[in-house]
Design goal:
It is globular and about 65 Å long. It has 2 domains: 136 residues, Aspartate Aminotransferase, domain 1; 239 residues, 3-Layer(aba) Sandwich (Aspartate Aminotransferase, domain 2), CATH 3.40.640. The strands form 3 sheets. A 7-stranded mixed beta sheet has the order 2-8-7-6-5-3-4, sandwiched between helices. Strands 9-10-13-12 form a 4-stranded antiparallel beta sheet. By secondary structure, the protein is an alpha/beta fold. It is built from 14 helices and 13 strands. The structure holds 4'-deoxy-4'-aminopyridoxal-5'-phosphate (PMP) and glutamine. Glutamine binds next to loops. The site of glutamine has 5 residues, from loops.
Length: 399
């Protein structure tokens, strides 16, 4: 038989699935894949349940239910001061994952270049390449994740069609600063490019850090597509409702991508997300404050167990250095080791790089109940308590 698609045939299973499966096999606490272990707001879930029962279960409009598009536009204004047209400037998708693919489809032609910043979310490169476009990778490195300005300048060129930016950033927990965003906005404008902004963690930012959409910078609104995710904003990651906001000239083309990918997303979930986005400020502030406390709790526990956790400004994640623990393998081996021997799963940070990445950093998710976080830290502390030795296996009598 003729070979199937070469890129997809060569691709491995995502690290999130690999580590979750390993966690299940070993009955481990799963601090790998980022999903909360408590339900999102009960009123939002109740709205979805009610919305299944009132005879509005047929195809919703292509770009999303009007009430959700209005709620997305209102949230853009309320939180970020952005003016978005609810009728022509919003497209509702099946999760941010679809939204990312739809935005890339909307702006890229084969051969176009896209500037992307490592460490990066695992769908970016495959989708860019499946579209025949060319990623230009620029790398942030731990421990400070500083923006390499020269490398960025060099990555932009006459073929640059877009910048794909994730802030607040998975896995680093970095919220890009006003100066960094201004630098990027200037590059995008000087090269007459588009910006595709993955802002799924927009509401998961910890004071004094602040989320600033690149779209809010002068000159950016007309060339930016901004992506949000109800999964993250309402701690309901299985819902897969995403939203894209942008200038109507661009979102009209995004809608055509969406029409060919999924066409619509479940109307009951759309109605519930519309209600959720209208919740008062205390909900959004509470979400960020709760996660900030969990991040601090996990970081303190990891430090007690001998890791060096990096500061996190947002998201579900903290990155920690395990070099001081003396483990003799790389980050993937380390993640397997702690899953099997401590019963705690994590994600190797090198999985977010295309190769040649630093290999002594791991990402832990802290969107879990406090008792679970404490238990995970105790398990790690026990595993690495002296006098653990990583001696080679003893020779058997036969050996
Ligand atoms: N982008 C980033 C950076 C993410 O971490 C995630 C989380 N899964 C997504 C996109 C996808 O979001 P969704 O679950 O809404 O598809
Ligand atoms: N965004 C989640 C994470 O980074 C995982 C999503 C997925 O499993 N595809 O952990």
């Amino acid at each position: 038989m003729k070979p199937a698609n070469a890129l997809l045939s060569a691709a491995g299973t995502t690290i999130f699935t690999v580590m979750s499966a390993l966690a299940t096999r070993h009955g481990a606490i799963n601090l790998g894949q980022g999903f909360p272990d408590t339900e999102g707001p009960a009123d939002v879930v109740q709205t979805a349940a009610g919305a299944l029962l009132d005879h509005r279960n047929q195809y919703p409009p292509l770009t999303g239910l009007p009430e959700l598009r209005q709620a997305v536009a209102a949230a853009n204004k309320r939180f970020w001061g952005l003016d978005i047209d609810p009728d022509a400037g919003v497209v509702i998708t099946s999760g941010a994952t679809e939204a990312i693919a739809a935005c890339l489809m909307a702006v890229l032609n084969p051969g176009d270049e896209v500037v992307v910043i490592e460490p990066l979310y695992d769908t970016y490169l495959p989708v860019i390449r499946l579209l025949g476009a060319v990623p230009r990778l620029v790398r942030l490195e731990p421990p400070d994740w500083a923006l390499p300005r020269q490398a960025l300048q060099a990555a932009f060129g006459p073929r640059t069609k877009a910048l794909l930016l994730n802030t607040p950033m998975n896995p680093t927990g970095k919220a890009f600063s006003p100066k960094e965003l201004a630098f990027l906005a200037d590059l995008v404008q000087r090269h007459d490019a588009y910006a595709i902004c993955d802002e799924v963690y927009e509401h998961l930012v910890f004071a004094p850090a602040r989320h600033i959409p690149l779209m809010s910078l002068p000159g950016m609104a007309e060339r930016t597509l901004r992506i949000g995710s109800a999964g993250k904003t309402f701690s309901l990651t299985g819902w897969k409702i995403g939203y894209i906001s942008g200038p109507p000239a661009l979102t009209a083309i995004v809608a055509k991508a969406h029409q060919n990918l999924t066409f619509t997303s479940p109307p009951n979930l759309q109605r519930a997300v519309a209600a959720g986005l209208a919740k008062d400020d205390s909900y959004f502030d509470g979400l960020a404050a709760t996660l900030a406390a969990k991040g601090a709790r996990l970081s303190a526990g990891l430090a007690r167990a001998g890791f060096r956790p990096l500061p996190t400004q947002g998201t579900y994640f903290v990155v920690a250095d395990f070099a001081a623990l003396g483990f003799p393998g790389d980050d993937l081996a380390f993640c397997r080791h702690i899953t099997e021997h401590a019963g705690v799963a994590a994600i190797p940070v090198s999985a977010f790089y295309e190769g040649g990445a630093p290999t002594h950093w791991v990402r832990f998710a802290f969107c879990k109940q406090d008792a679970i976080l404490d238990d995970a830290c105790d398990r790690l502390a026990r595993l690495f308590a002296p006098p653990t030795l990583f001696a080679p296996p003893a020779l058997t009598a036969a050996g």
